[in-house]
Amino acid sequence: MPATISPLATLTPPCNSRAWSSHPHPHLPIVATACSDKTVRIYSLTNFAQQSSIAGGHKRSIRSCAWKPNSVGESVLATGSFDASAGIWRRWEEGAGKAEAAREVDFTSGLAGGDGAADEEDEEWRFAVILDGHDSEIKSLGFATTAPLLATCSRDKSVWIWEELEDDNFETVAVLQEHEGDVKCVAWSPAEELLASGSYDDQIRLWREDVDDWACCAMLEGHKGTVWWVEFESAERVGALAKTDGLNDEQKALLDVRDTAGPRLASCSDDMTLRIWKRVPKEKPSEPTGQGKMPSIWKNKDFDEEWVQEAILPQVHERAVYAFSWSKKTGRIVSTGSDGKIVVYEERWCNRSGADVAMRDVSPAPGAEEKVPGSGLTEWVAVAVTENAHDVFEVNHAVWAPRSDKDKRYDGEEVIVTTGDDGEVKVWTLDE
Amino acid sequence: MDADKDNPNPTIVNASDLPSRRRSNPTAKRPTLFDSLIAPAYPSYAVPLDDLSSPEVSDAASDDEEDTPREEIDAQEIYDLISSIQDPEHPNSLASLAVVNLPDISISPPSSPNSRISTVTVLLTPTTAHCSLGTVIGLAVRVRLENALPPRFRIDVRLKEGTHTTADAVNKQLGDKERVAAAMENGTLVGVIRNMLSTCE
């Protein structure tokens, strides 16, 4: 393996029972960890210590949480619990939200990465509102980045979309019930109002607003087991494929098609695989911009979208893959699961130069597949693997986060944050 | 009363015909194994286990001070852990109803020298092909093993192929850690499971 995953720190104190997932704040160097002890622990990624906690709001395990991306002058966290409710929590925080806006408010104390004890007493998390509606456990939730929307999903097979009309006033705008099993995960596209959900029914569905109603615009079939996690890639081209110098026409054409199609989706499953899915752009005079709203062309064309499986990542996991994270900085994917492994994958151009061309890379006859460049041009490679990441315990979650401790090696360096059945949250560096 | 049961007249195996270790009294607790049940299963085991450390382990990766000797756990021991679980609707153990059978228990060793994770697979035979309690029985077995075995074991509990009309659906539920975790926060279900496991302690 060309890279090594090295332990950097274990956040303290750990939860003394299973911890489900950890979610990096959109701007501050902190993560929120959802724990089975009905609490959320907020840890600093600067000093790796617990900074605050949220307790007393839920009657059962907190399975997941989500930060509101554009809150101004405060942090807003949504929590999803096995008690079927979602909670919204607020805390004034300098540096949260947009930096300029934050200064307009008179804060009593700064908090970003601050020292724990004082913060905890002075700055409690304020319970804002509880979102009731689901019939059973909430599994996942997420705020859209392009609109004031929150999605929640549940064992009751439904996905709910909530619109925040004004502070703390959430209105249900959609209850989507096409899934035939628990909905395990939801994820918003970074480029448009498009929601993905993965389910116990082994399927992935994509949802969009059609005139006035939200509806399913695509169903992605392929996984042979529960879909545990879905996530879109960054809206911008990043990583090994970001550089356009020296590309041949075929490669440039692929990138053009990708820009037209919009961010791809990745998924992981109980079937031990991770898969990449892409939208097939429609034949039409004008093309989607991938920015903000869907172009007006959709209103006249069919609502349905066509999505196809683009790739299966190299098979490294030996048991269910519970979560992965698609880096917005490097385009790399990190995955983890029941086998306790952490795996990092990278997408690269296939090596097609001269004698190195492998049989599987033989180009199709000229013109044969001109229309759909893509398959065969790039390949996903596992670049780093570590085993027994949380000792012998299952690892429930892995996510990229900006590195924020004093030993950060370069601008934009990322760490991997993993969350396990041992109640621990661990931070890892990727060394190349 | 009996008419309400899925299977009012199950076949019951004579206790003396159930598998056990010849060298030990089947009702006697195996001290080494049960020590590890009482003490927290992780990170360390009781010192007396030293003499049981398996050769398979000693040359495996143990670069970590916390690495403690592993006791051998075989199918018979898994069987002993779950055989006495009580059926939810009959006053009999899962072993005497032949729901749990020794040949249907297997243990897979770690898949590579670096891995420390073993897998225990238990195939259950419901007393009838439409037994509505298959999920509850499976859950009880899984919970029993999760509580009793060290965390290095992954536990797969399934209904034996061809024994149940909805085996696939039941198996999928039993394999879903999130559903199992949520079920164990359901007071009613926990009560039923606790009752079934009361004969184990």
From TrEMBL, chain A:
Gene Ontology terms describing biological process: iron-sulfur cluster assembly
Family annotation (InterPro entries): CIAO1/Cia1 (IPR028608), WD40/YVTN_repeat-like_dom_sf (IPR015943), WD40_repeat_dom_sf (IPR036322), WD40_rpt (IPR001680)
WD repeat copies, ranges: 55-89, 131-163, 176-207, 416-432
Recorded coiled-coil stretches: none
SMART domains, alphabetized: WD40 (SM00320)
Keywords from the named record: Repeat, WD repeat
Any Pfam family hit: WD40
GO cellular component: cytosolic [4Fe-4S] assembly targeting complex
Family: Belongs to the WD repeat CIA1 family.
HAMAP family: ciao1
PANTHER family: CYTOSOLIC IRON-SULFUR PROTEIN ASSEMBLY PROTEIN CIAO1-RELATED, WD40 PROTEIN CIAO1
Reported function: Essential component of the cytosolic iron-sulfur (Fe/S) protein assembly machinery. Required for the maturation of extramitochondrial Fe/S proteins.
Protein name stated in the entry: Probable cytosolic iron-sulfur protein assembly protein 1
Organism of this sequence: Cladosporium halotolerans
Automatic annotation (TrEMBL), chain B:
InterPro entries reported in the protein's UniProt record: FSCA_dom_sf (IPR034904), MIP18 (IPR039796), MIP18-like (IPR002744)
Signal peptide span: none
Transmembrane segments: none
An individual GO BP term: chromosome segregation
Pfam families cross-referenced by the UniProt entry: FeS_assembly_P
Ranges where the record places region Disordered: 1-33, 49-72
Record keywords: Chromosome partition
Biased composition (Acidic residues): 61-72
Residues of the MIP18 family-like domain: 76-151
PANTHER family per record: CYTOSOLIC IRON-SULFUR ASSEMBLY COMPONENT 2B, CYTOSOLIC IRON-SULFUR ASSEMBLY COMPONENT 2B-RELATED
Family to which this protein belongs: Belongs to the MIP18 family.
Protein name per the record: MIP18 family-like domain-containing protein
Source organism of this protein record: Cladosporium halotolerans
Lineage per the UniProt record: Eukaryota, Fungi, Dikarya, Ascomycota, Pezizomycotina
